[in-house]
Here is the input.
Amino acid sequence: MVGCRSSASLSIGHLTSLVSLRLRDLQDLCSLEGLPSLQLHDLELKDVPKLNAKCMSQFRVQKALTVSSPVILNHMLGATGFTVPEFLSLQGCKETSLSFEESANFSSVQHLILYECEMRSLPGNLKCLTSLIRLDIGYCPNISFLPDLPSSLQRISVWYCEHLKKSCQAPDGESWPKIASIRCKEFI
Here is the structure.
């Protein structure tokens, strides 16, 4: 569902075969009914400002999670039994800073995408993503340097982030020492 005028509540529990759910730009949506019965393969929650914390804490996602706000992510991380899936994407984040919840288990995250975010810097605690293999950063114009990265990282892509791209240039860029040993580097 994208950009629909919706009621405050939506019932989806009867959709027992549902594996993928995308909710974008739903300004009125406050709750979803029937979530505990669903095991989703992937979930996207973008611009759902009224979706309540209880609802967010009931999601179970197996492979991919895309959110537009660290608030949504933190509500999910606070839920008992929630496991961060291997693919995590933060898109369209308006916050100028972001930090990953130190107490959360990010050991399953292998691919992180930050796209069209307004943050001024990357989370300083990216090293807590101990299984991170791939990091993609695109259209984040305010990011100008990299924090310390996990040693598991094998691929970094930076698209249309001019300040960060400059910082990552060999041999004198401020961030170059942090990515010099990474096998695959892509800059556009």
Remarks:
- The helical segments are 53-56, 70-77, 162-167, 176-179.
- The first strand starts at residue 9 and ends at 11.
- The mean pLDDT is 89.
- Residues 86-188 form one domain.
